[in-house]
Design goal:
The protein has 652 residues and is of the alpha/beta class. The chain folds into three domains: 296 residues, Rossmann fold, CATH 3.40.50.970; 155 residues, Thiamin diphosphate (ThDP)-binding fold, Pyr/PP domains (Rossmann fold, 3-Layer(aba) Sandwich); 128 residues, Rossmann fold, CATH 3.40.50.920. The strands form three sheets. It has a seven-stranded mixed beta sheet, sandwiched between helices. It has a five-stranded parallel beta sheet with strand order 1-2-3-5-4, sandwiched between helices. β13, α21 and β14 form a beta-alpha-beta unit. α1 crosses α3 and α13 runs parallel beside α20. The longest helix is centred in the first third of the chain and has 22 residues. The relative contact order is 0.08.
Length: 652
Amino acid sequence: MNAPLPPAPVASRPVTPLLDRVKVPADLRNFSHEQLKQLAEELRAETIDAVSTTGGHLGASLGVVELTVAIHAIFDTPDDRLIWDVGHQCYPHKILTGRRDRIRTLRQGGGLSGFTKRSESVFDPFGAAHSSTSISAGLGMAVGRDLKAARGIKDDRHVIAVIGDGSMSAGMAYEAMNNAGALHSRLIVILNDNDMSIAPPVGAMSAYLSRLLSSNSFLNLRDLAARMAKRFPKSIERTARRAEEYARGMLTGGTLFEEMGFYYVGPIDGHNLDHLLPILRNLREAEEPESGHHGPILLHVITRKGKGYAPAEASADKLHAVSKFNVLTGEQAKAPPGPPNYTNVFAAALIGEAERDPAIVAITAAMPSGTGIDKFAKRFPDRSFDVGIAEQHAVTFAAGLATEGIKPFCAIYSTFLQRGYDQLVHDVVLQSLPVRFILDRAGLVGADGATHAGSFDLAYLGCLPGMVIMAPSDEIELMHMVATAAAIDDGPSAIRFPRGESTGLVLPERGVALPVGRGRVLREGGTVAILSLGTRLADAMKAADELAMRGIAATVADARFMKPLDAALVERLAREHQVLVTIEEGAQGGFGAAVMHHLAWQGLLDGGLKLRPMTLPDRFIDHESQTKQLAEAKLTAKDIVETVLSALGRGA
């Protein structure tokens, strides 16, 4: 008989004597250079230990430890505005800004958000979670500061936006940079390049050049040269200015940013405080109104995701997002094996359809694993497209493919499709192009909270003419709906499904296309009808069982489609029952509103029908487990029963 395996070693809490002295960032400004280096090591250890107990975005946070320390040591936060793009790298920032005592509540119910959040701390001047917003927000703050100063209100604060190279794939970042360059606003943008996607390796020469270029003496000399050049004929002035810009561009690689009106500094090692501290100090001084320098500055730093934690550095994704893990081994806690999640069911169904139809392609916007498109890409690498964090482009790119007879499946989280809404309306729906939208993470999503919840898709899609909208009640229905979308060739369609595990049903080899706009009745009753859209159907069936125990026979129907609505089914339920309850995991203005609208125009609300639409409440629901979020939203079987009893005038 084999002996049981010994338990994995357990790490003790890190020893952090310097970090223990930091209550707010101002405390860092009393530390020596060497103490700040030690503090960074302690901060890294504390971040690792905290995330090991909560899960979360580890790799990105470890990559910005030194940068976080340097910014807070040099700048006067929170008076100086520090904006973290996306926010998944903000854990060290939270620890240094008075939230260390709560850092082990990260992403837990009632605890700290996994992203920056204005209501959580004055050190979070702008809330984030979606990418590429930091430069726009920072520019707004900088211009607001300048407008107040013009009215005589003293405001000389600095604005610093930290944005990753991944977020720079979104057009919004360049729109903001172009505007900032044109306005000549005082703004510092720190490009955190952790994928080596832009810069070459950096070293001592690059650091020396960056210190030189960021110094006041160089900036003043440059401004003097610019003023002198203006006395020359225009052709010579342009030549001199271009020569200076391109000389620095050749040395440092910043020509692109210079062309957009930014003064470029870098690239520098983002883990070397000997480089970071003097350069940030130079930039702070260059930003002072009396320095004579005008215009935005871009500092380009090179970092490594997972820096300083061996398991993260060795991981392919640098432990970007993790569950709870053992600090010593890096081994993540594994849930007991269960049924496949909806994302994997979708991926398998799409691969099955694509094996039979060479026109099918898949598109995602920087979320291949999150949407299951990574699996499709392994099977069909030439038919899979990851366009980066560029949802607007993804939608119009899909529209272009559709014009050529290709069948694009555009897989984007429900919350992220909001970013491409104009393209959805103008480029797809208005032209009746058969783009198939796959909306993963529809409904409540748990620890990522309100920023990632897919609450609004039914409302924002339901108002669009010609859009087919489907919501599967289980994984088999999802397979059928993938087959249905593949068969729709005369206009756009969308399938929304939730985050998490499916119900464990035995899956067919392939889905079968459903009749478009037709629902189904699963149980016949009498007084009460429950009409569900999506995965709330399981709770609707549980509610019907409990109602039956109370002597109330309930009809349960699965709408399958929000649009086109199964008018015959909806009218039949309204005519044959005293109470009609609709239920959906979406905001007000979605499926229930569509049912009410139809019944009102049919005159079926003029009599005694008691219609009760159950939706997400008209407020945002904070991070918590999905089960508790659904209970808070009052969308469980218990809530359905209470809704029915209330409509019937009966107590619980």
